[in-house]
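Subject: Sanity check before I submit

Could someone independently write out the structure tokens for this chain? I want to compare against mine line by line before I put it in a report. The sequence has 182 residues.
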Amino acid sequence: MLRQTAFGIALSTLVLASGLTTTPISGHSSPQKNPNNKPLSIASNQVVASNTVFKTTSLEKSVFDQINRYRVSKGLSKLTLNANITRQARIHSQNMANGKVPFSHQGFEKRVTILPIIYKSAGENVAFNQGYSDPAAQAVIGWLNSPGHLKNIKGKYNLTGIGVAANQKGEVYLTQIFLQTN
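---
Independent answer below. Compare away.
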């Protein structure tokens, strides 16, 4: 399998879009208030990508766990996984994987304003990679080494949602949305 990278590492591909952060939104509210802070438990989705089977919900949990381990190591509070936010992150990753939208933050404002959650600020990290046995770890490594993405990871957020999708070409798209509700 041929792998290429934007960072010059042989035999791999990892592309990151710069982290997107909104300015605080004073008193923003969605049509309904339902801050569902329960952990997400949805049946595992499997995607076969270039003869590799990715359990996308396992990759999402891996990103969540890695980000929270990093936050705790820096004295920051853990993020709470939210099913509504995860749903929007998954839709965006699926749309990028299917070519419906480009690899970007396109539609970010709509993704967060559609949420039935009152929030003060929001941010988003996206990543794309191909050819890695652990695409979640590669995305997190890339985010931690990128000032814009790291700003979101270390931000004063309390809720998150993570969505992962892969396509038949072996491309894996990851989206993490962050919200500050308090």
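---
OP: Matches mine. For the report I'm noting this point. The two ends are 46 Å apart (CA to CA).
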